Known about the structure:
The structure holds 2 protein chains of 2 kinds.
Chain A: H1 3-6, H2 18-24, H3 30-42, H4 44-53, H5 58-75, H6 88-101, H7 107-112, H8 123-132, H9 140-166, H10 170-176, H11 189-196, H12 200-223, H13 232-243
Chain B: H1 24-33, H2 40-47, H3 53-62, E1 100-108, E2 112-119, E3 124-131, H4 139-154, E4 163-168, E5 174-179, E6 184-185, H5 186-192, H6 200-219, E7 222-223, E8 232-234, E9 240-242, E10 249-250, H7 274-277, H8 297-300, H9 309-325, H10 335-344, H11 348-356, H12 361-370, H13 382-440, H14 448-461, H15 466-493, H16 498-514, H17 521-557, H18 563-575, H19 585-593, H20 597-617, H21 621-638, H22 642-651, H23 656-673
Antiparallel strand pairs in B: 1-2, 2-3, 3-5, 4-5, 6-8, 7-10, 8-9
Amino acid sequence: MENSSVHPSAGPFPTTCWSNVARAGDPDNPATRDGLAALCAAYWFPLYCFIRRKGHNAEVALDLTQEYFARFLEKGILGSADRHKGRFRSFLFADCNHFLAHYHDHNAAQKRGGGRTPISIDARDAEGRYRAEPSHNVTAEQLFARDWALTLLADVLNRLRCEYEASGRSRIFEALKEVLSDGSPRAPHAELAAAIGSTPRAVQVAVHRLRKRYRELIREVILTTVADPGDVEAEIRDLFVALGGPF
Amino acid sequence: MADNHRCPNCGAERLDQAPEGLCPKCLLENALGRQTGQSADVTFAFESTHAGAVLESLARSVGPIPRILLPDTHPDDRGTHVVKPSSPEMPALETRGDRYILFGEIARGGMGAILKGRDADLGRDLAVKVLLESHRGKPDLVRRFVEEAQIGGQLQHPGIVPVYELGTFADQRPFFTMKLIKGRTLGALLNERKEPEEGFARFVDIFERVCQTVAYSHARGVIHRDLKPANIMVGGFGEVQVMDWGLAKVLKEGGVADEPEVPPAGSVSVIRTVRSDSDGDESQAGSVLGTPAYMAPEQANGDIEQVDRRADVFGLGSVLCEILTGQPAYTGKTPSEVLRKAARGDTAEALSRLDACHADAELMALAKECLAAEADQRPNDAGIVADRISAYRASVAERLRAAELARVEAQARAEEEVKRRALADQLTVAAEARVKEERRRRKLQVGLAASLLALVVVGGLGTTYFVQQRQQRSDAVLRALTEATTLRDQAREHPDDPARWRVALGTIRQVERVLSPSANRDAWVQFIRLRDEVESETATTERDRELLERLADLRSSGAAEGANYAARYTDALRRAGYDVEGHSPAEVGTKIGKRPKPVAQFIAAVLDEAAAAWTTFSLDIETARARALRLTEVAQLADANPWRHALRKALVQPDQTARLAALRDVSNRRGSTS
């Protein structure tokens, strides 16, 4: 899959932390607002899938996703004191669930303000990816977490690839990326060394560096979605569990 | 790669959307596993304790382990919606332990919060009740919390939420896990009704099951003390569960506080907790626990020592009152007003409401008894209430059955009456038809079948109303019957004409093909009998005709052949079923006598000739004579004509003189009679 299609919302990954946003909570503060918008842009897809699974068709689901984010960005997270803690993922799931439950009440308003597009979504891409999703017998919450994990991993890997490309090492990334999922490179170091025109020792070092950077990046990215930095490990575990289902 | 669809590392199925084509699961595991730079041994130790670790470690030794997650088909999980995704009651991650994943808060009570969680290893959703953060370290509340878990853990009944496990989080707060109940509370269901009569039978059914559940807990020495619709969960598949045993009290063995009571059943053990073994109740005398609108006076007064099973009976009474009248025992504008009423046992308003409701008297009486202000006026425990409700429901079922029976009987009588009238009409029609047929009988033959068919078909097609249709079909059967009877009678009048029988039989067969036995059963049966009769008579007539033809041939051709000629006669008769020499003369004679008169006479004449031939031509006088006697005897029985009787008698006279005298006498008689 092309990177560009994986990331319709191309651009730097949000650097604003959910913890900061949650703490500030003021929708009129441009920094808070931008931070939220960036977070939303990064994680619109799991939300879109979630709304689709609620039985809305593609078009309506897109509108609803936009509508939800529009409202969310307008009102911020004020008035939901209980939600100040916790993770962005859990918050978004519960909040959007609530939004959908009350969607009918505001249906008219939605139509009136239907043109709002606070974040950029590639509509064709959305449906294409949604259709590629297997259909499951697992709960919406599980699927949401799973989509979230996939989106997050795609972002992390994309950033990693961009970094390697920027420094002219895209061949190394291509050759070695499998070590990020496998415990060890599938091909012997010597073979890899030959492939990228290097020595086995250099390959060993490169593998180590790639892994290290990957772990740093995934933590950076997850850090933006949790209120407490201590939650990062637990979030990784929970996402791991979410992926562990019978997919 | 052996299998392109699976990750070679962990065995998980590959996803189309896998980032960079890499296994997302392994990516996350790698992100976790070596982040701290720990050695492989340490990593393994870590993995063995994180959520889902049992399966992961098993997978390491035996390869991919399935993770079964059954589809969630529950039609109604409104009871389990997380209301606070990040509840303050959720322990911090590092203190949570690794087995349960927590999703947020479902509900909250005075003592604990119910969180929605999942057992990562079993893939089972469950409810986790945790002591409120604010109560951490309060010994009495911790004790009460543990007791609730113990009581719930030991009460094992389909109506009681099972407790799976009691544990503590690392922050020292106790928690216990329970089955996650999906459904709606009885309170919510009752509030949805527009009027108390709505869904009445269903609510009585739910109430019966609540009573049975509470009866079980009473039998085990536990009183609930907070029975109310909000604590009764009704699942989407009809399951009913009594929840929140947080106020439950274990009665001291031996019974209630104020009077001795026989233990419910010898085999039922009484639940033991620290509290029931310790001296006295931990609840402070004078403190009020429970929900006033459903509370017995002794409980509302904080009279802890007096609270026993009958307090629960009052609670059940109040729930029943709400089912019947839409409101619990006590109502009021403010909670304190309700509590005041409860303390006074002021149920006057509830009783008048009960009197005004339209429920059956048994139910009203039961509710009133349960709501008695004095505990000893109430049924002794929930078992009695359950029995009364069961008896009531049985009586309702019996009444319904009786009413249904009466209805069916009335219907059957009405149908019988309709049938009787229809039959009377049919008979009239048949009689009329017979008269008409009498007039038409001579011109009937050829067109009959066609006209009958037309009648039947027109009768079948021409009507829409089924009774009419049946009636007409029934008429057609009767008409056909009449026609066939007429034909048979005609055929009988011309026994020498088998053609008439053949016409009759052909007509009957044609009609038979288009008639339905359902139209008029009796007539149909009659018709079939008639058909069989005509069939057999046709066959017999046919046989007779053949016989007569044969005999006539013999007569005209072989008169000169003497005894041989007689033997041929008897042979032809034997072949037609009249074995003159084999059977007794009486049998054969009677049989021939039953044939139509001309046939019988003809055969008798042949027999007479044969007898004469024997006596005339036979050389062996004695044998010939015996044979002639036998044939004459048969002929006498076959032909009842008095003159011929006398003639035969005369002919067989052994003495010639006597024979001549007799013949003369017969000849004279003929002259005088004819």
